[in-house]
Amino acid sequence: MRKPFWRAAGFVAAGAVLGTLAGQLLAHQVPLLARTTQVNWHPAADLGVLRYTLDLTLRVNGLTLVGVVAGYLVARRSR
User: Fold this and answer.
1) How far is CA 38 from CA 8, 12, 49, 57, in A?
2) Measured between alpha carbons, how far is 37 from 54 in angstroms, rounded to an integer?
3) What is the pLDDT of residues 13-68, one digit of tens each?
4) Are 13 and 76 in contact (CB under 8 A)?
């Protein structure tokens, strides 16, 4: 892959993390931000030699989406 793709992916991921943190911190002052959507995924396998279990949870609030869009815009501007 090209370097600009990874840079853009990094900005988008950082925007999502910062947006989620901001949404959690501001949820007490703005009740609308307290609404979150949660997706859980529990992949597991037992292959005889190797057994694994993984629990992944994705929580998204309104500011997470704002952070993703802001990260994308910053990535486009930094080219």
Assistant:
1) 25, 19, 33, 7
2) 20
3) 999 999 999 999 998 998 888 899 999 999 999 999 999 999 999 999 999 999 99
4) no
